[in-house]
């Protein structure tokens, strides 16, 4: 099996949505089998691209140019699933990117176990969303999508702790806030497969936020830094907006993000 960082780079350089997630899941399975056999596979180093390869469609637009659709209509629900599919595909790349980009910092092998598992789950999430879209007569790529999603990765490309603060602890934590409302909307529409898919996503995303919090605190401890102060400083530096309540305080707590981390960052 090739070193993990090289696997990560291969996923980042794979353009197609289904192709990227298939490769991601195959590599994650290889890693899991090796780890369950008690092996410590090599991490190695890689040369991750500044922008991961993506399919020709969807067209990527600035958020203000992405048309808004009413969530209570079939078109609105397709647009919402399309937006989630796009987020999940970005998340696949984000998790492999954190594996490939920061190999200069020596980390315990559990760090890699966590992000490989998260990347595998994001790949499943993308496939679930793509399946739901196809069931509704659409597909990933049929609508335009937000261009700004990779911004956080670019901004934190040389700051490992900044990456952990912004991606899992701000962006993925935001997913915990908004997913229950989406589940309710699809329940009202009696869209059973979308409800089941979103419930899977909601259940699994708590762990991704928790991995972020765990490794952020680990690095703070290694450098004798106060985690809350560091978090506020790094989010202020790399995240260009206020955090928006309402927060899912219960799930955030379950994921290891206490209220005094996020409330001071609201407007
Ligand atoms: Fe996800
Ligand atoms: Fe996630």
TrEMBL record:
Transmembrane segments: none annotated. Pfam families: DUF455. Coiled coil: none annotated. Residues 38-73 are annotated as: Disordered. This is Uncharacterized ferritin-like protein (DUF455 family). The lineage of its organism: Bacteria, Pseudomonadati, Pseudomonadota, Alphaproteobacteria, Rhodobacterales. CDD domains: Ferritin_like. It comes from the Bacteria. InterPro entries: DUF455 (IPR007402), Ferritin-like_SF (IPR009078), UCP012318 (IPR011197).
């Amino acid at each position: 099996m090739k070193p993990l960082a090289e696997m990560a780079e291969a996923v980042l350089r794979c353009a197609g949505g289904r192709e990227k997630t298939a490769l991601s899941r195959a590599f994650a399975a290889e890693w899991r089998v090796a780890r369950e056999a008690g092996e410590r596979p090599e991490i190695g180093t890689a040369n991750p691209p500044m922008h991961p390869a993506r399919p020709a469609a969807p067209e990527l637009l600035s958020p203000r140019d992405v048309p808004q659709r009413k969530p209570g209509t079939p078109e609105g629900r397709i647009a919402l699933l399309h937006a989630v599919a796009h987020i999940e595909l970005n998340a696949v790349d984000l998790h492999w990117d954190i594996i490939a980009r920061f190999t200069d910092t020596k980390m315990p092998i559990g760090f890699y176990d966590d992000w490989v598992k998260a990347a595998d789950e994001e790949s499943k999430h993308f496939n679930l969303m793509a399946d739901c879209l196809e069931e509704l007569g659409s597909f990933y790529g049929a609508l335009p999508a937000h261009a700004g999603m990779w911004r956080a990765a670019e901004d934190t490309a040389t700051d490992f702790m900044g990456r952990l603060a912004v991606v899992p602890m701000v962006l993925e934590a935001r997913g915990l806030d908004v997913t229950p409302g989406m589940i309710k909307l699809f329940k009202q529409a009696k869209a059973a497969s979308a409800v089941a898919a979103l419930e899977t996503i909601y259940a699994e995303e708590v762990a991704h936020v928790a991995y972020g919090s765990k490794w952020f605190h680990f690095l703070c401890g290694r450098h004798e830094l106060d985690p809350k102060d560091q978090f506020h400083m790094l989010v202020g530096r790399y995240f260009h907006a206020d955090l928006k309540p309402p927060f899912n305080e219960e799930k955030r707590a379950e994921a290891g993000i206490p209220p005094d981390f996020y409330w001071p960052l609201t407007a």
